[in-house]
């Protein structure tokens, strides 16, 4: 008999195991492949981590759907189910950083249920292997960093905030609203940072290292775990329209503390509309 829902121990062990597998490749020689459509690169470490995660999940939860960055959606559930268990996986977020020997990358895994195309995370974890940093959140039970509960930043002045964003795969005209927003936020805040791994940026926002994060377009595996971390740490997460965020349906995400959210959201809204 298989378990119906994963627990904290299973997810933490799984994500640490996947993270450890990436370290076998980090700062060594490995195969790099360019994705089609100028969408960046993928390495053999990405594939190894993803296969490891999927195999472990399927062994214990054979009827759970898995949405993963490199292999897409693998459907195990029956088509007549209105609500079905779903895993959303980024086996290595920050692949460009990883390929250059930059330690700012992570593994991101979320589990929840999908109903009518909307995903609700129940548990999520983000792990940075190079610093052994483990973030975990469970719906209604808070967010934790290496076992200790953490909370969103309580900073009240936007001018003293550090905000993070990213370029994603934006090119050409898509860079215009992005660069306008970067200029506006840089002028209003202590500083804006671009680190190259959206999931890890979300984890740092949940921990209070960053006071806000926004980016578009992102994929479900970039945001599924991180959005739960922030919500359970006391933060606000919306899409670019200011509505409830759904990792599967929304490509843009805005997240920060309740104290700073309105100013961040309004600054972004002006430059993207």
UniProtKB/TrEMBL annotation:
Keyword field: Hydrolase, Magnesium, Metal-binding
Residues annotated as binding Mg(2+) 2: 90, 93
Cofactor: Mg(2+)
GO MF annotations, alphabetized: inositol monophosphate 1-phosphatase activity; metal ion binding
Binding-site list for Mg(2+) 1: 69, 92, 222
Gene3D superfamilies: 3.40.190.80, Fructose-1,6-Bisphosphatase, subunit A, domain 1 (3.30.540.10)
Catalytic activity: a myo-inositol phosphate + H2O = myo-inositol + phosphate
EC number(s) given by UniProt: 3.1.3.25
Domain of life: Bacteria
Repressor is among the record's keywords: no
Gene Ontology BP, a term: inositol metabolic process
SUPFAM superfamilies: Carbohydrate phosphatase (SSF56655)
PANTHER family recorded: INOSITOL MONOPHOSPHATASE, INOSITOL-1-MONOPHOSPHATASE-RELATED
Family: Belongs to the inositol monophosphatase superfamily.
Protein name: Inositol-1-monophosphatase
């Amino acid at each position: 008999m298989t378990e119906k829902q994963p627990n904290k121990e299973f997810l933490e062990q799984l994500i640490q195991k996947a993270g450890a597998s990436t370290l076998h490749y980090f700062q060594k020689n490995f195969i790099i492949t360019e994705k089609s459509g100028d969408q960046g690169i993928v390495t053999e470490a990405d594939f190894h981590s993803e296969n490891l995660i999927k195999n472990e999940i399927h062994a214990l939860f054979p009827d759970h759907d898995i949405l993963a960055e490199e292999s897409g959606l693998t459907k195990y559930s029956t088509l007549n189910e209105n609500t079905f268990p779903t895993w959303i996986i980024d086996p290595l977020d920050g692949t460009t950083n990883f390929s250059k020997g930059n330690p700012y990358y992570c593994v991101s895994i979320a589990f929840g249920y999908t109903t009518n195309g909307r995903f609700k995370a129940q548990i999520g974890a983000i792990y940075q292997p190079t610093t052994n940093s483990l973030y975990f959140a469970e719906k209604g039970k808070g967010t934790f960093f290496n076992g200790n509960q953490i909370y969103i930043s309580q900073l009240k002045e936007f001018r003293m905030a550090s905000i993070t964003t990213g370029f994603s795969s934006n090119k050409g005209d898509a860079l215009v609203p992005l660069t306008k927003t970067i200029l506006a936020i840089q002028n209003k805040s202590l500083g804006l940072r671009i680190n190259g791994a959206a999931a890890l940026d979300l984890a740092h926002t949940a921990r209070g290292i960053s006071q806000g994060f926004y980016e578009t377009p992102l994929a479900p595996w970039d945001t599924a775990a991180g959005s739960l971390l922030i919500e359970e740490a006391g933060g606000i997460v919306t899409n670019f329209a200011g509505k409830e965020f759904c990792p599967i349906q929304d490509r843009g995400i805005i997240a920060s503390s309740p104290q700073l959210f309105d100013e961040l959201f309004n600054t972004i809204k002006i430059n993207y509309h």
